[in-house]
Amino acid sequence: MLYRAVKFFERLSMRIKFLGDFYTGLGGALVEREISVASITFDDNVLHIGCGSFPYTSEIIARETGARVTAIDCDNVAVEDAKQYIDKKKLASVKIEKGNGMNYPFAEFDVIVVAHGVQPKEAVLRGILHSMKKGARLIYRNPKGILGRLYNNEFILLDGAEHIRQKRAIFRQSILVRSVLVRKK
Length: 185
Known about the structure:
This protein is an alpha/beta fold. It has helices at residues 2-15, 17-37, 56-65, 76-89, 121-131, 145-150, and strands at 45-49, 68-73, 94-98, 111-114, 137-143, 163-166, 172-178. It has one domain (2-181): Vaccinia Virus protein VP39 (Rossmann fold). The chain has six helices and seven strands; from the N terminus they run ααβαβαββαβαββ. A seven-stranded mixed β-sheet has the order 3-2-1-4-5-7-6, with helices on both faces.
């Protein structure tokens, strides 16, 4: 039920400016802090997993840093909506694709951002850690409070990785994992 509600709200947000501004306002500061903590720059190739219909994370990263961003989602409707949104914003550095966080070529990317609704999150994160290139950064979002319970997400910390938490967001926290510190088992 929550998934459908979020999907509905994202579809409205990409079409109705004041809703999009509201939605971006809720998460925009979080994304800007993620950019800072992960030191995302123009030279980075970024993957955003779980972009949804309203890929504001991809938009903000591209606009703020000039980085190339590939945003993926496994939902066909979300992918088509996101393509329309990015086309309307004229963001040539953002590419939207249908893709699955369980089996994507992670080694091509310098930074990987995993949205809070991606499932099964722990399996996706472990797959990324196993495949990402040395020196890459992984940012994943853990919903907390009521949002965490609604998403049925447990707080995930990955063994053998340095975790840098950012807790200032209203409903979420972001965690940065540096691949150079990951012990592969």
